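Fold sample X.
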Amino acid sequence: METNMHRPNRSSVSTEQFNKLTTQPTFNVDEAAIFLGCSRETVRRLAAKKTLPSFRLGRRVLFSRVGIEEFIAKKSISV
């Protein structure tokens, strides 16, 4: 299995694709992983722990861009 398939990151997507992510209001698990620069499993684990805000739409788990940005802001270290 290819590394990018397991752990999507910002370097595995084009600038155009990443810019598209920054303008859409919701992300699926894969898109959230790319936006955060972590694995899909990490996103799923954070959502299951309710650390990363998520919601269900039918069988899909979705994440709001604003919720992810707030998560990042809370986790950021001030220097």
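Fold sample Y, listed below.
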Amino acid sequence: MDASDEPARPAPTLKKGTVLELEIEGVAYGGKGVAKVGGYVVFVNGSLPGDRVLARVTRRKKSFAEAVKAAKAESETM
């Protein structure tokens, strides 16, 4: 099965301004942290792999969203 045979995964309902609690999994080109919400990619400015952050969505596209770090999340909440 190649990528064209896989069913399209609907993007979660993320609107501009939505605050998410995320765990950063990696770093993208340009230094943005990468997190996933149900397979949907979220790029977070100012974060590093292993960070748990609260991030506010600033831009949403069909296959990804961009967000800014609002605060470090408390580890007990994840």
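Sample Y note: Strands lie at 19-23, 26-27, 33-37, 40-45, 52-60, 64-72.
Also: DSSP finds no helices and six strands in the chain.
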